[in-house]
Amino acid sequence: MHRFPRGTLREFTLEELRLVTDDFSQEQVIGCGGFGEIFRGTLSDGTLVAIKVRSQRSCQPLEVFNAELRVGSAISAHSHPWLIPVIGYHFSMRRQSTTAMIVYAFMDNGDAGCYTDDRQLERTPLD
């Protein structure tokens, strides 16, 4: 059984996340990686979010999801321009299917790699 940090992160329902992403519309996809697709959404309070949805074909084990939530929960308590706050998650298991999602604060103007990759920093003009 997976244990997730409770109390520090919001647990979203699948219905809530479907609503804020227009039912996971391809128009809301802002990225893709080894974990799966990342969707842009807007919570009911107006907060912009990025929702990382684990693909059923993902080669990453659920332990990676769990670790990302634990680390995200710990660092979300601190404010730093290179730390992207984790707002919450959704996790459900049904027979042969597992649904796992992580909800982050939305980072405008590119992904974190744009700001932390040394090669990108070399190409970015300074003011």
What do you see in this structure?
The protein is built from four helices and six strands. The chain is α+β, with helices and mostly antiparallel strands and 127 residues long. It has a single domain, classed as 2-Layer Sandwich (Phosphorylase Kinase, domain 1), CATH 3.30.200.20. Strands 1-5-6-4-3-2 form a six-stranded mixed beta sheet, with helices on both faces. A hairpin with a 2-residue loop joins β5 (86-94) and β6 (97-105). The chain starts with 9 loop residues before the first strand and ends with a helix.
| Total individual domains | 1
Q: What is the number of strand segments? A: 6
Supply Rg.
15 Å
User: What is the string of SSEs from the N terminus onward?
Assistant: EHEEEHEEHH
Mean pLDDT: 79
Q: How many individual helices?
A: 4
- For the termini, the CA-CA separation is 50 Å
Helix content: 25-40%
Largest sheet: 6 strands, mixed
Supply database-style keywords.
globular; alpha+beta; Phosphorylase Kinase, domain 1; 4 helices; 127 residues; 6-stranded mixed beta sheet
What topology emerges from the helices and strands here?
Blueprint: E1 10-11, H1 14-20, E2 29-32, E3 37-42, E4 48-53, H2 62-75, E5 86-94, E6 97-105, H3 112-116, H4 118-123
Parallel strand pairs: 1-5
Antiparallel strand pairs: 2-3, 3-4, 4-6, 5-6
